Amino acid sequence: MAKVVAALRNHWKKSTVGACLLGWGGHWLYGRHCDNLLRRAACQEAQAFGNELILPTMPLKKATVFLNPAACKGKARNLFEKNAAPILHLSGLDVTVVKTDYEGQAKKLLELMENTDLIIIAGGDGTVQEVITGLLRRADEAAFSKIPIGFIPLGKTCTLSHTLYPESTNQVQHITNATLAILKGETVPLDVLQIKGEKEQPVFAVSSLRWGSYRDAGVKASKYWYLGPLKTKAAHFFSTFKEWPQKHQAALMYVGPTERPPEEPEEKPSRPPLYVRLYRRLRSYWSPPKEFPREVTPEDWEELKLSTIELSIATRNRQLDLTRTEDFMDICIEADTVSKGEFVHRGSQKIRDPHMCPEGSQCIQASRCILQLPEGTEGSFGIDNEEYEAMPVEVKLLPRKLRFFCDPRMREQMLHAAIQ
């Protein structure tokens, strides 16, 4: 023992490095062990769904998974196959996995998709935006938009996961919780933004449209990767070397909030007996109902000239209120009188929370708006963190358009918060 202590003392540098490596290796192995326990527990819970008896005449539920292998810097495929795929297969679903090979492919694949009971999106914000755009561009979108959608967060940015699932610092736990939430069947209705240019087909988003200097600088932050945690501040700092102050000129026309109609019942009423249907048909034939012309209320448009450092148009999905009586989207027009120091500091905050509306900004609630840009305007929009060329657009809110699976605990929190 004395010889071992003497050797460690004489070679203290090697001993220190070895102890650090041993500690790190032990921590890594313990983390892998904990992840395997989480996967096993999730699979056992999914097995309970798979063991449920079904009638011989009932077909298996079909689930179509749209997987973006390039998400999370190419790690999404491995994350899906290790954490989510076993749960889906054990649950008794008839699972079809569709892997996308290039950007925009999901939109084309949705046009060819046949009937399915569930749509599952495995990726990040970009994958969600592509799938719902392809879904709502279909000629039969009225029927397909009623299909419930599941979201498995595998991407670098997963905005919807903050609404649908509890926060978790463990990636494996976050993915397994999201997959189990799909099996439990609880859903919430989410609003959708329809964004239409003058010539292009409409694009759909569940989060927001952003246009301005903070978005442009945030996109370039990855170029300064060698600065580590300072890359975000560096991107915004170097952005101030451009023409300052950075102003974005536009004209905005908008219509205020609309009253929310009552939600349609999920269960269809039972079909009346044959003699009742015959009686109703004969009565409508001999004495057809009189049609009265409906009075169309003219829309009350308001116009605004704006000069801003950034404009954002966002849904209320992040602060989901299941009991609100009005439907609207939030338009945030940030003041252009910002110092360079404030710009750098606020830019870091907006990376963490892109939907923040700083003090001094003009906030508008609208159900529909038209954004007119001056000729020759350059730059890009950020639509659910995907880049699109800046152009004049009409943005329309489609309230409660899609239903997404969510964790039952999150739904309870929403209802409890609404009651309070």
Automatic annotation (TrEMBL):
Q: Which InterPro entries match?
A: AGK_C, ATP-NAD_kinase_N, Diacylglycerol_kinase_cat_dom, Lipid_Phosphate_FormReg, NAD/diacylglycerol_kinase_sf
**What are the GO cellular component annotations?**
mitochondrial inner membrane; mitochondrial intermembrane space
Asked if the record carries the keyword Nucleotide-binding, the reply is: yes
Family named by the database record: Belongs to the AGK family.
Q: Which named protein is this?
A: Acylglycerol kinase, mitochondrial
Q: Which UniProt keywords apply?
A: ATP-binding, Kinase, Lipid metabolism, Membrane, Mitochondrion, Mitochondrion inner membrane, Nucleotide-binding, Transferase
Q: How does the record say this protein sits in the membrane? A: Peripheral membrane protein
Q: Name one GO biological process term.
A: sphingosine biosynthetic process
Cytoplasm in keyword set: no
Q: Where is the DAGKc domain?
A: 58-199
Stated EC number for the protein is 2.7.1.107, 2.7.1.138, 2.7.1.94
As for subcellular location, the record says: Mitochondrion inner membrane; Mitochondrion intermembrane space
